[in-house]
Amino acid sequence: MPRYLALATNQQFEDAVNNTMNGARQALILALTIMEAVINFLVDIYRSTFLCFLELIVRGTLSALITAFKRYITLRILPSVAHL
Q: Which positions of the chain have pLDDT values less than 70?
């Protein structure tokens, strides 16, 4: 009788250890998945912010160049055309 109790107890210990290991594995996989999602989110925010800032620089530079060119055209070409 003690042999059968020992076998049953050992089987229960084995099941408990295996289930604990499987639970820990699933928890670690979930933690890695969450960290991956957070890192992807932060990288996407950084990329979007950088692209927005780059677009601001390009549009600002183009606006300044266009305004300067329009003033140059207005000051240089139109007065000489008016004298004709």
A: 78-84
